[in-house]
Amino acid sequence: MGGISMATAAGTGLAAMNLLNDTRKNNQQMKYLRQDQQAAAAKRKNLLNQQLATRRAGLGAMGITSSKSSAAVQQRLARETYDDIAEDETDYKRRYAGLQQQNSSNLFNTALSAAGKLIK
Questions:
Q1: Is residue 106 very low, low, confident or very high in pLDDT (cuts 50, 70, 90)?
Q2: Which of 12, 17, 92, 98 might form a disulfide with 37, Cβ 3.0–4.6 angstroms?
Q3: What pTM did the predictor assign?
Q4: How far apart are CA 54 and CA 69, in angstroms?
Q5: Digit-coded pLDDT (tens) for 11-30
Q6: CA distance 54 to 7
Q7: Which residue blocks in the chain are alpha helix, DSSP H?
């Protein structure tokens, strides 16, 4: 029995290392994606709170304590902000799922490549 050559073993090992490095890189990207998504949502909420506070202060300075049109504008601002946050969350989930799929493919291809080299 001849076994596998050193070149075949080295090639298989190098291919496996490359795919595992890609998986590690994808895991880092997934971590940063989540952090970025959370930071963007917090930033949007803070901006919304500032806009609403400024609007309320302006109305208070004019002596207006309650206004249906003002409330409607504030509700619209809040709805748009939360719609944007939901859109960002959907985009994040799509990108995260893509990276997970790449990781699964990398691991499968690593195993398949190693098995194929050993069988030859």
A1: confident
A2: 92
A3: 0.61
A4: 16
A5: 666 766 777 788 888 889 88
A6: 69
A7: 6-61, 68-119
pLDDT of residue 85: 92
State pLDDT tens for residues 63-99. 766 677 778 888 888 999 999 999 999 999 999 999 8
The alpha carbon dihedral of 19, 20, 26, 32 has a sign of negative
Distance CA 81, CA 23 (A): 34
- Determine contact, residues 103/26, Cβ cutoff 8 Å: yes
With H, G, I as helix, E, B as strand and everything else as coil, classify residue 45: helix
- Structure confidence at residue 109 (pLDDT): 67
CA distance 60 to 26: 51
End-to-end CA distance of the chain: 12
What single-letter DSSP state applies at residue 64?
Answer: -
Token code pair at residue 57: 């202060």
DSSP-based three-state secondary structure for 3:
coil
